[in-house]
Design a protein that fits this description.
The chain is about 5% helix and about 55% strand. By secondary structure, the protein is mainly beta.
Length: about 775
């Protein structure tokens, strides 16, 4: 390792600091700014998006990355914000076709979603967006506002598929984004930006083959239709068999996207988009964990799609066509095997239409973003969930139907243009969602010829509506220092109606909520290549209605100091430290009280702090290393006292959460990627790449049994995921052939656990490998 690189790793060498002629800042400020980030942040494989040209040849210069995280174009290295940006070509080369695979490599991010069954763990509605936790802040349950706002082309996602294609970039914003992104961005925001039509003809295609019968195809066609009109069409299709022995966790998805750009004059444009996503998967498979070994009675045949016929078996005896199995109670399973027969289903249909209008007046730009989304889905699976008798645990069939999920969003922004000392933007936002869900479980095993007999049915109508008014301004005190202030006023109206057997809980909920968010930031350029910033901001997640009880609002105040640095030799070093103060972090608690399972939304005070680093080291033109460590402490600061019985509901027993760990918050994690390019005589390149992600143990879900001592059933032990690929790129990058392997250690990771009888978990993907062939015109 040469001396310059060694010094860069242990401290900034004096010769890399700018001279007095380059910047008028004293040595103390240099030391503060460049040393303030011996803290954190590294973009793992996403970081190489900042240094890799599209041809695959590696440069020792740091490439500028433009993002629109704050609704205006800015150099990522010049923006006082914790953000990771991943270019579309890097996603393509890495072979990722779903958001889960991408975000698992971003520091401070933990996926709560499940493989093969997006509707089971989506925040709202079938198909997505997925549950995401950033810095330990996630989403406790469906039908509550997400902690991470996920946007596609500026439209808040409220459904849709997890696979994506023809991407321009992905932006991951860490920390509360209450002023510009509003409710539901207490943990951060994720922006998915797809490619827009251009006036240049272009086409591309890709085919992919892999284990588990994987066959995938992608295609794109971009055409100018006139001097002021262009169209872009893209599709993505992927099929693979189930990862489980019973066929669960398969994929059968087809997505299309159409975008039309009309620009009749230089300062005015209309962009129209339409997305269609269809999925016919089996849903996620289940691994049984924890508890004690239990006998279950199951049908010895696959279950057909739709609600199956069942036979009651109250005394635990074996009925005709039913087989008794002994379930293995292991809190740390090692294989993708389920004792249950095949027979899940998870069809999803999602459509989105949207419009983006921009009118540049010279001094200011007016933007309108409007979108309509609709989806419907079903989710059914076998599950040992109930214990109807003292000597028997019988199979239950979960059946969830979401016949409609419709969302309207509108946003209007007016933002200043030009390079004056004061830049500003003001706007208004409106969101309206209507969701209907029925949950229909049935006892015992499926038997041919016996009518379906559900145990009970819960019907729910959920209609959140939100209006927000926001503004943000940045003022340059001088050529190097800027102050930013932002505000947002949010008005929420939540209506929920529920039909529950026996009417044991109130059925209706109607409440108006208001909240005011603010942000203050100071940033200073210590040199042309070094930025130091400090931010105080707030975030808000509205309360939710769970089983007749309204949970309190979630509010957070965040403090952050960070630095971004470009250095000689192609070195980028970014980092931050943060502190989050929660007055009441939302959690869903289920307890057995007097023989009845009681589920409530529990707000618990909490404090979280940590440090993140993103670093890219370019050893030479052919060797690149990226690394992204993150340290995190996320704990509750109070216990939940026992509460008196709400109207018509059993009481809450209370439990000792004070000092307990918040789920989805590993104390340490690190992602790293190394890539080496072998130049070939023909002008082509051969690129060998390997990446890994390691994190310490963490709790997967909030449950009373984790406090004061952790329940092994909910603990995901420390693990490492390894991936690698070898890619051939022709001269100019027109033709590519890649072979890849993902999760080379075949590591099984629990993503979320359900405290049933016995408990079961949804888990990550096993070892997969394949080959991709692509071409561009």
């Amino acid at each position: 390792m040469d001396r310059t690189l060694r010094n860069a790793l242990i401290g900034i060498p004096r010769k890399l600091l700018p001279s007095k002629g380059e910047i008028d800042v004293n040595n103390k400020l240099h030391s503060l700014g460049l040393g303030a980030l011996g803290l954190a942040a590294i973009g793992s494989w996403p970081a190489h998006a900042q240094t890799t040209p599209a041809t695959g040849a590696v440069s020792t210069d740091v490439e500028e990355v433009i993002v629109t995280a704050e609704h205006r174009s800015a150099d990522l290295q010049k923006l006082g914000l914790s953000i990771t940006a991943i270019r579309g070509e890097d996603l393509e080369q890495h072979g990722d076709t779903d958001l889960n695979a991408v975000l698992q490599e971003v520091p401070g991010v933990v996926m709560q979603g499940v493989t093969g069954g997006p509707s089971a763990q989506s925040v709202q509605g079938g198909g997505g967006p997925p549950n995401i936790a950033i810095r330990g802040l996630g989403t406790p349950t469906p039908n509550t506002t997400g902690a991470v706002a996920v946007y596609e082309d500026g439209i808040l996602l409220d459904g849709g598929g997890l696979n994506f294609f023809d991407m321009n970039r992905v932006e991951v914003l860490r920390g509360p984004q209450g002023t510009l992104y509003g409710r539901g961005a207490t943990a951060g925001a994720v922006n998915l930006i797809t490619n827009d039509p251009t006036q240049e003809f272009g086409a591309s295609g890709r085919v992919e083959f892999g284990n588990y019968g994987l066959v995938g195809t992608q295609g794109m066609l971009n055409m100018p239709l006139a001097d002021d009109l262009a169209v872009r069409v893209a599709f993505n299709e992927i099929h693979h068999n189930g990862y489980f022995n019973n066929g669960m966790s398969n994929e059968d998805d087809f997505s299309t996207r159409l975008k039309l750009l009309y620009k009749p004059i230089e300062n005015f444009s209309i962009l129209l988009g339409y997305t269609d996503y269809q999925s016919n998967g089996t849903g996620p498979g289940q691994v049984y964990v924890g508890g004690t070994a239990t006998t279950a009675y199951i049908a010895n045949r696959p279950v057909a799609a739709g609600p199956p016929p069942i036979a009651t078996n109250p005394d635990g005896t074996t009925a005709a066509g039913v087989t008794a199995l002994q379930l293995n109670a292991n809190p740390n399973p090692s294989s993708w095997s389920s004792p249950l027969p095949g027979g899940g289903f998870n069809p999803i249909a999602y459509r989105k239409a949207y419009a983006d209008l921009e009118w540049d007046f010279g001094a200011a730009k007016l933007t309108y973003l409007g979108g309509y989304q609709t989806s419907n889905s079903q989710f059914g699976t076998n599950c040992v969930c109930f214990a109807p008798g003292p000597n028997a645990v019988n199979l239950s069939y979960q059946y969830v139907v979401e016949p409609y999920d419709q969302t309207w969003t509108h946003e209007v922004r007016l933002a200043s243009e030009g390079n004056s000392a004061l830049s500003w933007q003001v706007g208004a936002y409106y969101f309206s969602n209507k969701l209907y869900t029925s949950y229909d479980p049935g006892f015992n095993a499926a038997i041919d010829g016996v009518p379906y007999q559900p145990f009970f049915m819960v019907k729910q109508w959920f209609s959140p509506e939100s209006t927000g008014f926001f503004g943000e301004a940045t003022y340059a005190l001088n050529s190097s220092t800027r102050l930013t202030a932002g505000v947002r006023d949010t008005l929420d109206h939540v209506v929920q109606a529920q039909e529950f057997p026996g009417a044991q809980i109130p059925n209706d909920f109607d409440e108006h909520l208001t909240h005011f968010d603010w942000k203050a930031r100071v940033e200073t350029d210590l040199s042309e290549q070094n930025l130091l910033y400090a931010t105080i901001s707030t975030g808000y997640r509205p309360g939710a209605f769970v089983n007749g009880t309204a949970g309190a609002d979630e509010k957070v105040t965040a403090y952050e100091i960070g630095s971004k640095n470009r250095m000689a030799g192609g070195i980028t070093l970014n980092g931050d430290i943060y502190y989050l103060d929660y007055s009441g972090f939302q959690n869903v608690s289920s307890q057995v009280v007097n023989g009845v399972v009681v589920t409530t939304l529990v707000p618990i005070p909490a404090k979280l702090y940590g440090a993140e680093v993103e670093a890219t080291l370019q050893f030479d033109k052919n060797d690149r290393l990226t690394i992204s460590p993150a340290l995190e402490s996320a704990k509750y600061t109070a216990s939940i006292p026992a509460t008196p019985s709400p109207p018509m509901s059993p009481p809450n027993n209370g439990f000792a959460t004070d000092g307990g760990q918040i789920p989805n918050a590993p104390k340490f994690s690190v992602s790293a990627l190394y890539a080496h390019t072998f130049p070939l005589a023909s002008g082509a390149n051969l690129i060998l790449q390997g990446d890994a992600h390691y994190q310490t143990s963490t709790i997967t879900d909030f449950d009373a049994s984790n406090y004061p001592a952790e329940n092994p059933t909910f603990v995901q032990r420390a693990y490492t995921i390894w991936n690698s690929s070898l890619r051939f790129e022709s001269m100019g990058g027109k033709y590519n052939v890649s072979v890849y392997g993902k999760n080379l250690g075949n590591t099984l990771v629990k993503l979320t656990v359900y405290n049933a009888t016995p408990p079961f978990a949804y888990v990550s993907d096993p070892l997969t490998f394949g080959v991709m062939l692509s071409a561009k015109l």
